[in-house]
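FIELD: query
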Amino acid sequence: MTTDPPFSIPAHPQRRFPHGSGVEYEGGTEFRLIPDRERSTPELAETVVDILEAGPYRYGDFHDLPMPLWLVRDEETTDVFRVAVRDGTVRLHVLPTTESDGLQRFFERLREASEGESWAVQRHVDGR
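FIELD: result
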C-alpha cells in the first residue's frame, strides 16, 4: 500500500477559441502541492526552476503575470501541463491532453528537491 497521493484526473478542461481572443479553458483539474512549512513565492519559484532545468523538461515561462507560471512538457512521459506558484503552493494545472504520469513524476522530483520536506496534495475539480 502506498501513501503517495493519487494524481487521477476526473475532468480535463475544454478548450475554446473565441473569435479574436486566443484560447480559453473551461472546467478542469488542478493539483495544489502544499509544503509542510511556509515558503515564500520566490523560494518556491526557485525550486520549480531548479526542477525544470534539471530535466527532462522543455518549458517556457510567462513574463508579465502577477505570479510565476510555466508551460511544461515532460519529455519522458510527453505530458504537457502548467505549473504556477501562488499563495505558498505549487499548482499543477491539467490541460486537455495531460495524463497522470507527468504530474506524479513532477511531484516526486519536487519532494526530492525539498530534501525530506513533506507535501500535502489537494485536488480541485472545476465543472464545465
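FIELD: remark
The chain has a mean pLDDT of 87.
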